[in-house]
Amino acid sequence: MTTPSPIDTILNPGSVAILGASDDLAKWGGSMLALLKKFEFPGKIFPVNPRSPVVQSLPAFPSVTAIGQPVDVALLAVPHERAIEAFEDCARAGVKAILMVTSQFAESGEAGQKLQDTLVDIARRAGIRIIGPNCMGYFHSHANLCLLNAQALMRNPVLHKGSIALISQSGALAGAMLARAYDLGAGFSFCVSLGNQADLEVCDFLEYAISDPQTRVISLYIEGVKSPQRFIGLLRQARAAGKPVLLVKAGRTDSGKRAVQSHTASMAGAYQAFEAAVRYESAVVVDDFLELVMQAVAWTSLPPPTGRSIAVFSGSGGGGAVASDLVDEAGLETATLSPGTVQALAPLMPESCAHLPFDLGAVPASHRGTNAQWLQEVIVGMMADPGIGAGIFVMTTQPDMVGAARTVMAASQLCGKPVVFVNAASSCGSEATDVLRAAGMVRFESIREATRYLANRLAFEQRAGVPLLEAPAPAVPAVAAMASGLPVGLMSEYQTKQLFAAAGIPVTAGQVARSADEAASAARAIGFPVVMKLMSAQVSHKSDIGGVVLNVRDEAAVRQNFGALQAALAPVPGATFDGCLVQQMAQADAELLVGTHWDAQFGPMLMFGFGGTLVELQRDTALLPASASRPAIAEALAGLRLYPLLTGFRGREPADLERLVDLIHRMGQLAVQLGEQLAECEANPVMVRGNSIVVADARAVWKEKA
Amino acid sequence: MTTPSPIDTILNPGSVAILGASDDLAKWGGSMLALLKKFEFPGKIFPVNPRSPVVQSLPAFPSVTAIGQPVDVALLAVPHERAIEAFEDCARAGVKAILMVTSQFAESGEAGQKLQDTLVDIARRAGIRIIGPNCMGYFHSHANLCLLNAQALMRNPVLHKGSIALISQSGALAGAMLARAYDLGAGFSFCVSLGNQADLEVCDFLEYAISDPQTRVISLYIEGVKSPQRFIGLLRQARAAGKPVLLVKAGRTDSGKRAVQSHTASMAGAYQAFEAAVRYESAVVVDDFLELVMQAVAWTSLPPPTGRSIAVFSGSGGGGAVASDLVDEAGLETATLSPGTVQALAPLMPESCAHLPFDLGAVPASHRGTNAQWLQEVIVGMMADPGIGAGIFVMTTQPDMVGAARTVMAASQLCGKPVVFVNAASSCGSEATDVLRAAGMVRFESIREATRYLANRLAFEQRAGVPLLEAPAPAVPAVAAMASGLPVGLMSEYQTKQLFAAAGIPVTAGQVARSADEAASAARAIGFPVVMKLMSAQVSHKSDIGGVVLNVRDEAAVRQNFGALQAALAPVPGATFDGCLVQQMAQADAELLVGTHWDAQFGPMLMFGFGGTLVELQRDTALLPASASRPAIAEALAGLRLYPLLTGFRGREPADLERLVDLIHRMGQLAVQLGEQLAECEANPVMVRGNSIVVADARAVWKEKA
């Protein structure tokens, strides 16, 4: 028999002690105890209060050590000044885990950090795991265990059992998400607010959620990732287990980063790298916490769409029109009816109405019969169309909204396709939304959120099974050999290209020339026209100071330009002239940049895009983990705005895409092999014309071994 | 004394007749009469029912002609088969306006269109104005007049008096928007659903709203614009009157266009031109109808922001972090506190908490005193910071939410700056939102919508007073002279450039050469290097077939290329060789496209952007009305992604922006002068380097006079 994991013990404890238990429900020790009792926790409850033998009608203990029975979880609702003492008591009592809700620890500055470190120390020595501090607690609905101080739980009589796990760095946002879920009639399998994550962190609960049979969808609110590699590995496991991970990451922008740092002392990290890394593990990134709940509830209450074509229907022609626009704008398609479906619907509505979007309000009353029955036949008949992958029903204020809600649910069940309900009737639709709530069925209040959900879910389903990332390939010996001798610092174009060549990346032929004579002879050997480039260790953007001459056509011009390059360096203070590079002149229909950098959290990242020297302005780039597979690279490349330049746009020769993807893939593999020492490298431009694909310029930064 | 306008009579009638008045509230003639009574319409009410002398306790008339008193408005709730008869009765009775709610007219096909035309005919002869058919009616709250069949009105005891006019082509969406407004505690000055607009249309009510002293904000739901020029003129009047016009336009996408056509038989037109035209009249375009209500209510319940810096505060650190991200992403700035404000707040909170975003939940209880009083002092003290232009409060589930709602309203009033309330507590926040509702104060449920509102309002306020469009300039005689002789069809580069030259637009020097000898002598006259371009009436994209040779450096090359151009045409079936153009070779750091086209609804439009032949891929263009002013052009240019190419990016020579704006402005003026006959014209590329700005290639399409 295996010992249960700490999370298992925490979520399914046999006993809970409450230090600071109180009759006053305004205090944490009061409300938490009340919640435990209200939702009928089946394990033992030990109130601890030195001044009162009975708390909330339960016998209380003067101290945790006085309990004399095993304590799985101790909730510490004590002032932070008394935290050390309480921890020591728990250690003596053999408590297995502490839920520490108190704040004013690491998030409040240096003194708090020290105090927190002391607690961690005590706990570690005693083998106690900690949730918090500075958190709001957690609940596990399937264990009838509630230790989360949230208004929605205090207001509602039932702890809904659900299949969504909610793991949040913010307690207040967990509370807000919970309130929204209650309004939707949805529940969570478990929910945990993690606060400062002094010990247990997002990954611990994420790992549990992946293996938890009662959890089908995982939702996360994250401020900073403590162990990025573990996190990414768990996302991969979740994907393999078929469990979607939906997440909000705060700290996307500079303002957000500052905010999270002061909130949970989290370092937000580079958001772009985070997003690239998690998307390539198929996580669904949402940018608002309430939308996160909506999406999670939709995910659990609706089957997956069977295709991209969305049937829009509404009691309002205007509602159908607006929804059609929003479906298109979400990158989905609006469905049209097949002739067979039109025929099947003929007894139910006049031909003039039998087209999508359905304007149900426009159907003359004479056709409707009993409204609810008629509606169900129409919707089920329509959704049966094999071309339709999902439906969206926009309910405006209309007759029989309750019937409409029932019909939508029934239709979805009968056809096995999702019909997404949008309540655009506000509180006039409350009786209808009550029907949906009772069934735990999602309803959106915003058409845009509904279309975004469908787009997210389709993307997730389509990605299932596509290999996005690769296991590390064996190290390339030639690269390893070169790397071992590289000096730290900015690598010259020449060095970088040698490294690329070792990795099998095609670079322009070229020679270093220290004199005009050498340049002339190099040019003859390479063949005219050539490119000439200034070499100077101090200059990284040569072209900005006139250090690149293209299309040099004869020997006289080579000699003249050699002098000109030397002169171009004169205005740069302290720069030394190291000669020039004479290179093959590559032609291009498209110039790309392909680069890598080492992200402090997520390791090697691969970036590519159009624009050559204009790449910052073009903003037409893709960022991927460097271990991206060829298919993932090809897909990202095809998503770029200027991609048609590679596929024969206006008479251009189509590029050899396989070769280009191979070049990009080799760059990624190079970054994976060289690791942290290759801080960044850049092939820019990569000249592409037909099957001629070659790196014309390059630079890199080599760092000391950490 | 002036006679009242038809709209005035319709919105302020002395008497209303209801044809089809009924005791059955499920019928239109029943519910409408009930609403008239419920909201205590002070004028005369004439139920008309041939079978019953009393309807809903009011004496009824057997026919409208039997009333024997003046009837300002007649509501026709009669089947469409009886519409002609009812209209004729109304004509005989001297009715001034008919509200026709019945459907199955123009929107249902040809037969319906004919029937509708007949009604319009009868009405026109009798001087009767029509609202509808196929609409839901209207109300005018300040006249206690309700003729709108909407659930929100049936459910609620009060017809809120408000300052938002709502003019909608969709009745069901008007109903949905009304329901949302009721939930917010907000009211409309008047609301009208227009249906098929057989007679009175959006513009008629828009015109009224602009002069209506009880209307401060105008909101529109539009499917198609019947009279675009009048519409644009009215938007300009609204702007001059300081009344914002917020609108949703359905039919933005192909799917939406199809939908609106079948809904209200509206032609959606080209959305891009619509959007450009209305934005340049400062209309605020929103893309969902419920968000339209939110924005309109926010506009009336909040003062304008005093600056771009937004103070974010929340009971949740996570809420503050997410909101900070969303503020940044909306193009606004998150505020920081000035040292003076930090000092002023020192007695209220520890220094570690005194930074934005405020995490009010993190302030230790010891600092809070009486929570509501403390909160008000903190928020008012913070909002007083002169650097702060507006506040956003994200309310998660937290203690004393009612107090928080009151504080936010009070703070906004005390500081004269908007504090936008976001209820992220769902129904847990209902007591707090009740407080806001009672005050008619907006509360958002989505942080993103709140930030979008602030961004819209700031943009509106900043535009006030900036001249965006110009009155037509006097016609340029040289342009008029050239235009009079232009043949219909595709204009050659040479012709187009002559037209541009006549308009004062700089073009590359060039000559037509019919032989290699002529080409050589032209090149000598222009100066080497030159560009040579194939001339053929049948070829419009010369460069795609190799018909453009750049950088021709000597006479021998000129002769050789002349032959090559002739040969390049050989594969094009039916194309005749008209010689070649020999032109000055212009240098460019940036290549732009500048073009105009005639939009069927909004007239001459001006488009410009970066990219030369890649312009479709670059998607970096601006579309403006051709009468755009120089400042408007300069602003749009500066908003383009590649704009830095003109301002010295990476060592480039800064372009003479004034000259470039002048060129674009002249193109716009040219399109204005030539009107519909200049179907389209294009200068592409416009070569820009420093103060050398010149059109290198051009084409145009000249149409017959309409």
Automatic annotation (TrEMBL), chains A, B:
InterPro entries the UniProt entry points to: Acyl-CoA_Synth/Transferase, ATP-grasp, ATP_grasp_subdomain_1, CoA-bd, NAD(P)-bd_dom_sf, Succ_CoA_lig_flav_dom, Succinyl-CoA_synth-like
Domain ATP-grasp span(s) in chain numbering: 497-533
Gene3D superfamilies: ATP-grasp fold, A domain, ATP-grasp fold, B domain, NAD(P)-binding Rossmann-like Domain, Succinyl-CoA synthetase domains
Record keywords, A-Z: ATP-binding, Ligase, Nucleotide-binding
Molecular function in Gene Ontology: ATP binding; ligase activity; metal ion binding
Domain of life the protein comes from: Bacteria
Signal peptide: none
Family note: In the N-terminal section; belongs to the acetate CoA ligase alpha subunit family.
Name of the protein described by the UniProt record: Acetate--CoA ligase family protein
Organism: Variovorax terrae
